Amino acid sequence: MDTQVKLRGFRIELGEVESALLMHPDVREAVVDARGKGMDKKLVAWVIASVGAKDFSPLRDNLRTHLRALLPDWMAPSVFMFVESLPLTPNGKIDRRSLPDPDTSDLSALAFVAPATPTEELLAGLWAVVLKREGISRHDDFFDLGGHSLLATQLISRIRDSFQVDLPVRAVFEQPKLLALAAAIKSASAGLSFALPPIEPQSADSPKAPSFAQQRLWFLDRYEEGKNATYSMPVALRLSGPLDIEALRASLGWMVERHQSLRTCFPETDGVARVGILPASAFEFPIHDLRRLPSAERWLQQRVDEHATEPFDLACGPLFRAEFLQLGKHHDQDINVLLINMHHIISDGWSLGVLVREWEIAYTAFVRGESPTLTPLPFQYSDYAAWQRQWLQGDVLAAQLAYWKDNLAGIPELLALPTDYPRPAQQSYQGAYRFQTLPADITTALKAFSREQGVTSS
């Protein structure tokens, strides 16, 4: 296994950095390790060059450029030491403790550069929230700091709220550095032609319409006649410890009451999707006691499969389901499983994580005989849907449609990816996924290819 270090909140596989260095034709051998403590901790590379030189400054610059194309900045060494040989242990392995102390004279160019304008300062604060890190430099790259497409979407939403400009998500990919994205925001503010209306809470009795994303999923469900679970989001959480049944039911009921989306259904009127809100009393959370069954694990797997593949009725709901399974003791600990399933029309992957964390907080509070203290939600998703339909119409809608029609013109109707089996005449929606750990060199190559293509590999 490759040696791993933690640097500024990131876990770095040293072997991955070494593999990237060895891809350079002028590098014969390379070792990477972390030196220093706290905020002074840095990655150092000891390099044996393929050819000798009196001045290795050009090679040092070339290696930095080389690594920038292969690795995020936080994985690139801050210091390069060019040596004639590497110390070895008696069994022939690299003796990392005996590597020469690094020369830090070349770090001045890599010093932190503070945001220089009010726009950069505010944007750096948004990055800090989304990326969960401090000390954002104006030359930092969003994706090098751990950003990906989902976080880019969240960042754009925060930019919209903070700067009152409507940038597309692609702007983060095209201008990933802080100072460049800040310039794009300033430019968009100067030439803003479509003012964004504020999101306002809707009255409880006002008619509600689905968002455009919900309307698309509703159409797909009607097209497939609701016969499959393609857009279900099942989760099984194995929990250890004693179960407080009353607190369990109370916390799930509290969560359903808190999030209107979980109570949403989509009845149809004259071929048009409408939005209905179910009462919290319409939800039941069954508890199955399997502790006396000799084949509890087998029954568990069967119930997990059934829970995940049972289709949802979008018209009637509920579109959120939860149930609890008690399995018995294992190593003197109670083992339980919480099954959650939602239709994608009321949630997404990011929201699922939020819901699980809020359920944990609520359950803990009810176990203690207290009420959850989470801040009330200022808006519900139906408020966003109303805002979206109010804004995305007229000239704004025409501009958006024109952009996508132009960019998607000429794309193939069907993506012909090579597969192991021929594509069936009718989509079956049957599949699975498998986890696989990739070697460091393959991971490095994939990241380099992704950066060249302007996409993320996550």
Automatic annotation (TrEMBL):
GO terms for molecular function: catalytic activity; phosphopantetheine binding. Gene3D superfamilies: 3.30.300.30, ACP-like (1.10.1200.10), Chloramphenicol acetyltransferase-like domain (3.30.559.10), Nonribosomal peptide synthetase, condensation domain (3.30.559.30). GO terms for cellular component: cytosol. It holds the Pfam family AMP-binding_C. InterPro entries: ACP-like_sf (IPR036736), AMP-bd_C (IPR025110), AMP-bd_C_sf (IPR045851), CAT-like_dom_sf (IPR023213), Condensation_dom (IPR001242), PKS_PP-bd (IPR020806), PP-bd_ACP (IPR009081), Ppantetheine_attach_site (IPR006162). One of its GO terms (biological process) is monocarboxylic acid biosynthetic process. CDD domains: LCL_NRPS-like (cd19531). Residues 114-189 form the Carrier domain. Keywords: Phosphopantetheine, Phosphoprotein. Its cofactor is pantetheine 4'-phosphate. This is AMP-binding enzyme C-terminal domain-containing protein.
